[in-house]
Amino acid sequence: MLTFKKPKIKDLLPPPVRAAHGEYSMILSSADDPARPTPELIHKCLAAIHAALDIDLSSLSKRLARPPYFPDIWPGEHYKLLAAFAKTLRPSLIVEIGTATGLSALALKQCAPGQIVTYDVIPWNNIPTSVLTKADFGPSFSQIVGNLGDPLFFASQLDVLKKAELLFIDATHDGHLERTLLDHLKTVPFEKPPLVLFDDIRVWTMLKMWREIKEPKLDLTSFGHWSGTGAVQL
Ligand SMILES: C[S@@+](CC[C@H](N)C(=O)[O-])C[C@H]1O[C@@H](n2cnc3c(N)ncnc32)[C@H](O)[C@@H]1O
């Protein structure tokens, strides 16, 4: 019997170049994008890009057992830009969604003047590649374990979330969780309108979510993560 195997995108469009890691993406016109960045958002991002030039994350890289030392790679990796946003915006609370290894949380911590709360569905000490230690935690740096995609858990965290002035969303990158998180965030009575940074906005599964955002937004990929970094002003 003849069986038809559905072709995969990688068979139809093999990558034209070799790279350690590649992702499928698409470039899209901006004239019909539903949102434009405001001058205020552009200024905030330029200030962070400028500050990133002088940020040294070599002590964070030392926590890695072997290269590549991602925190030192900038642009291309997002760690220095994240630290720079913590430095220039001076947020009293930063909320991260997606702790994983702790690299981005520690990059933020290096320059954060206030508090950081990082969420994950997996406790940091259950992540074999974690660079975090017990000594990193204290009143200004904590992890909360839970799924913010769950409306009940999200509602239980409102007292924390409403104080956030900078949020970094680095979770599943499937586009669905990110859209749900953004919808939930729009219901939060924020004390100050926060800046939301999204990782991986250029990855295929994230394209639709990013495109459909109607709030002021700016694609910062050239100064952030090669897979896409985007800023949204709520
Ligand atoms: C790409 S990793 C984050 C990388 C991290 N920022 C770093 O620097 O190592 C994604 C993380 O998001 C977590 N995650 C997935 N869904 C989540 C959710 N609904 N709420 C919180 N964290 C979630 C995963 O468990 C995973 O640890």
Number of helical elements: 9
CATH topology: Rossmann fold
What is the topology, as strand order, of the major beta sheet?
3-2-1-4-5-7-6
Number of strands: 7
- CATH class group: Alpha Beta
Overall pLDDT, averaged? Answer: 96
C-alpha Rg (nearest Å) = 18 Å
The CATH superfamily label reads: Vaccinia Virus protein VP39
Tell me the fraction of residues in β-strands, as a range: 5-15%
| Structural class assignment | alpha/beta
In terms of quaternary structure, the protein is single chain
Domain module tally? 1
Largest sheet: 7 strands, mixed
Reading the helices and strands in chain order gives HHHHEHEEHHEHEHEE
Q: Any ligands, ions or cofactors bound here, and which? A: S-adenosylmethionine
Low-confidence stretches: none
Give the overall shape.
globular
- Helical proportion? 25-40%
Query: Between the first and last Cα atoms, what is the distance in angstroms?
Result: 56 Å
Shape-level CATH architecture = 3-Layer(aba) Sandwich
